[in-house]
């Protein structure tokens, strides 16, 4: 049996490592879908997402929709505060997802899901506010005591901000983090449900 040279072995390994042209093209088309959705989000009134995707070759449309889904889904986020509840971003994303749903019999279900998401976001803001107020009330007696101690030392009235107190901040961050984690889990599941409604396969779907 002939012994292969090191060069022959290296050449065989190089051949085996040749890039998968189909996979490369698929990734390129997904990126095109992401860019298209980005154009839509930048100017939703000027970009017809559905028409742009349908203007591409039929065999590429599912990949474009996958990429568009990825970009649109980034707009489905828990609001940072009541003043930035994300309602405008969510409305634009909803319109984009509605365009992806056309032709898949999912328009009504997608619309209903976004109505539920809007109520969900408002509930998160309400719960976050209640948590904030509850923790401040709970901490208030201790804060007043520290204000009195500080006033006795300085000879003048002192008002302390609970967010400047390390003990309060630690408890606040723990409780707020737990609340956000609970809501984020539900939101992540909603995104997977949305992908399923649109017929988009997700690698992270697991057993759902």
Structure description:
This protein has 208 residues and is mostly helical. The protein folds into two domains: 1-74, no CATH class; 106-208, no CATH class. It is 71% helix and 0% strand. The protein contains seven helices and no strands. Helix 4 (61-73) packs antiparallel against helix 5 (87-101), helix 5 (87-101) runs antiparallel to helix 6 and helix 6 packs antiparallel against helix 7. The relative contact order is 0.10.
Q: Could you spell the SSE succession in H and E letters? A: HHHHHHH
What's the rounded overall pLDDT mean?
Answer: 86
Query: Number of DSSP strands?
Result: 0
Class inferred from helices and paired strands: mainly alpha
**Percentage beta strand:** under 5%
Shape label: elongated
What is the rounded Rg?
26 Å
Low-confidence stretches: none
N- to C-terminal separation? Answer: 52 Å
Number of domains: 2
- Binned, the helix content reads over 70%
Largest sheet: none
Number of helices: 7
């Amino acid at each position: 049996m002939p012994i292969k040279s090191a060069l022959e072995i290296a050449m065989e390994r190089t051949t085996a490592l040749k890039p998968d042209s189909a996979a490369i093209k698929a990734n390129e088309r997904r990126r095109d879908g992401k860019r298209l959705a980005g154009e839509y989000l930048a100017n939703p009134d000027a970009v017809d997402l559905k028409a742009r995707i349908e203007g591409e070759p039929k065999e590429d449309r599912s990949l474009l929709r996958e990429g568009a889904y990825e970009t649109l889904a980034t707009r489905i986020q828990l609001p940072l505060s009541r003043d930035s509840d994300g309602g405008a971003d969510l409305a634009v994303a909803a319109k984009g997802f509605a365009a992806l749903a056309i032709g898949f019999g999912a328009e009504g279900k997608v619309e209903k899901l976004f109505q539920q998401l809007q109520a969900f976001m408002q509930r998160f803001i309400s719960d976050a506010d209640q948590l904030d107020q509850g923790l401040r009330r709970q901490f208030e007696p201790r804060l007043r005591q520290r204000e009195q101690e500080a006033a006795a030392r300085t000879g003048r009235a002192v008002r302390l901000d609970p967010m400047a107190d390390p003990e309060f901040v630690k408890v606040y961050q723990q409780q707020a983090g737990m609340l956000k984690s609970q809501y984020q889990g539900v939101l992540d599941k909603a995104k997977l449900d949305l992908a399923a409604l649109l017929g988009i396969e997700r690698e992270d779907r697991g057993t759902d």
